[in-house]
Write a structure and sequence with these properties.
Order of helices and strands: EHEHEHEHHEHEEE
Strand order of the largest sheet: 3-2-4-5-1-6-7-8
Radius of gyration: 15 Å
Helix content: 40-55%
Shape: globular
Number of strands: 8
Oligomer: single chain
Strand content: 15-25%
């Protein structure tokens, strides 16, 4: 089972993703954030306090495909896909290899161990205006394409708005309302 959870900033998507995983015994939280400044370090600290102590933690800002390939008999909560993308786009030495990692990520999701459940958190960034800067426009484009690619392979997709989960896709089928 792959479940993509998307929404805007502070929409409640991380909390919802964690709620999905609470029912499982073996959970590994995969953090993509890096503490580049004090404010981000505080955000990371709040997220850490909110998670159950018995959950395992992997901090991986770049190689999500490898984490997924290595996972067995557990639930992964990956938070978050758009920070992972930012890490790639802002690292000038790695940036040229993003498309290769993206392909590896999609392949790893498709061929993951059947006993591994994956909940992926991502930001929906395409509902606003077109950004002015080149990097911002590229981020918006790449995030949209990455989210679409993950949504295609996901079994379930949920949009979280103001703390309310809205199902978009269930068991591989689009939800029509």
């Amino acid at each position: 089972m792959i479940h993509l959870v998307t929404g805007g900033a502070r929409s409640g998507k991380s909390r919802y993703a964690e709620e999905l995983a609470y029912q499982d015994d073996a959970v590994t939280y995969v953090a993509t954030a890096t503490a580049g400044d004090e404010e981000m370090a505080e955000r990371i600290g709040r997220h850490q306090k909110d998670r159950p102590d018995h959950w395992a933690l992997i901090e991986e800002p770049f190689e999500l495909s490898a984490v997924i390939r290595d996972a067995r008999n557990q639930t992964l909560v990956i938070d978050c896909l758009t920070l992972y993308l930012s890490n790639w786009l802002c690292d000038t030495e790695r940036d040229a290899n993003f498309e290769s990692e993206k392909s590896s990520l999609i392949s790893a999701l498709k061929t993951r161990s059947p006993d591994t459940h994956i909940v992926i958190v991502t930001n929906e960034v395409g509902s606003g205006i077109v950004p002015m800067g080149q990097l911002s426009r590229r981020f918006s484009d790449e995030a949209g394409w990455l989210n679409q690619a993950i949504a295609r392979v996901a079994d379930d997709v949920t949009l979280v708005v103001s703390g309310c989960p809205l199902p978009l896709k269930r068991q591989g089928q689009l939800v029509h309302g």
